[in-house]
Design goal:
By secondary structure, the chain is an alpha/beta fold. Helices cover 35% and strands 18% of the residues. The protein has 2 domains: 23-99, no CATH class; 102-340, Alpha/Beta hydrolase fold, catalytic domain (Rossmann fold, 3-Layer(aba) Sandwich), CATH 3.40.50. Mean pLDDT is 87; it is low at 1-33 and 337-341.
Length: 341
């Protein structure tokens, strides 16, 4: 869950420098206006997607709440209100004769402090071999709360109004965002209800009982500064967040990272683990299938074995075969959950 010291330093420097960079284009864009390149780390940590359309995306900034429209090369094409960006996107649809997205879609969500492109290879595999419209959803994992991240996911799904089926795949924190989305929200003007088109869900290395690492680092100023609300919600504030998470009512499978022993990769995480998340922490009652892959947390979503397992589950509702399904019955992890708190 928490990156290495080297990555932590990169996060700190990149986020600080990007925060003051507003080279993000202007409102009133029309076809032919030169694109504006993005400050890369600001893009990876401060913006949350609200709309996807054939590679074009409308995003909202976590701090300023301004919106921008990105093209399929991730260049800024418009900036301002959501309606202004939506109008610019409508111009693109008309001039490029882009057809609505239909059929089956799969939305992929990255983990804490991870860039959007960390899910690109898995998305490409699902699109090429599974026939899905694969959309990698970016969210401001370091500068917003899980509630805000789920609100962005709700907007993306709401805008896929002509898709027949929506599947969800998360890595690490991305799974908690999915569970928060599935719980819905009654907030006036900004609430949502989970979409009935949501079909199957694959959770890759999910911290379904919070993160021991985040809990232990919660009081360190550097950790609080770098990992923000999400880091606290996975640690000290987990109990409050957990009360607002749902267990999927549709078929869902869990892929955990582990090495088949009692100590794993990290001495600070109890039991078998992937270096960040314990196998036990990934368990969630009601899971349709469960499997362990010998992979490190940061790279598990880019493991070819995980590509194949994810596609198999989305297609069929199991990872290997119906006979080898390892479901997690309701009531089977109650004791474990208490021990992990």
């Amino acid at each position: 869950m928490v990156r290495s010291c080297v990555l932590v330093l990169v996060v700190g420097c990149g986020a600080a420098s990007a925060a003051g960079d507003d080279r993000s284009g202007g409102a009133g864009w029309s076809p032919g206006t030169p694109a504006v390149s993005l400050p890369s780390w600001d893009s990876a940590t401060a913006w949350t997607d609200h709309c996807h359309f054939h590679g074009w995306r409308i995003q909202q900034h976590a701090q300023t709440h301004a919106f921008r429209l990105l093209d399929d090369r991730n260049d800024v094409r418009a900036q301002g209100s959501y309606d202004e960006c939506l109008a610019a996107l409508s111009d693109v649809k008309r001039t490029q004769n882009l057809q609505p997205i239909r059929g089956k879609a799969v939305l992929l969500l990255h983990g804490l402090a991870a860039p959007r492109w960390s899910m690109n290879l898995l998305a490409q595999h699902l699109e090429k071999h599974g026939g899905y419209h694969a959309l990698v959803v970016e969210y401001a994992s370091l500068r917003s709360s899980v509630d805000d991240q789920a609100r962005g996911l709700a907007a993306v799904i709401r805008n896929l109004d002509q898709v027949d089926e929506i599947n969800l795949v998360g890595h690490s924190l991305g799974n908690i965002v999915i569970r928060r989305y599935l719980a819905g929200d009654d907030a006036a003007g900004s609430g949502w209800r989970p979409d009935p088109r949501v079909a199957r869900i694959v959770m890759i290395a999910p911290p379904n009982h919070g993160s021991i690492t985040a809990m232990r680092l919660a009081d360190f100023r550097v950790f609080r500064k770098l990992f923000g609300s999400s880091g606290q919600q996975l640690g000290k504030a987990w109990d409050d967040l957990e009360a607002r998470l749902a267990t999927p009512r549709t078929e869902f499978g869990i892929i955990a990272g582990g090495f088949g022993n009692s100590w794993g990769l990290s001495l600070s995480v109890p039991g078998d683990d992937d270096g960040r998340i314990g196998v036990a922490t990934t368990l969630l009652e009601g899971a349709t299938d469960f499997i362990i892959v010998p992979a490190v947390h940061e790279f598990i979503a880019n493991d070819p074995r995980v590509f194949a397992l994810t596609r198999q589950f989305l297609d069929s509702g199991y990872f290997v075969s119906p006979e080898r399904k390892q479901s997690i019955p309701v009531g089977s992890t109650a004791t474990l959950a208490r021990e992990l708190k």
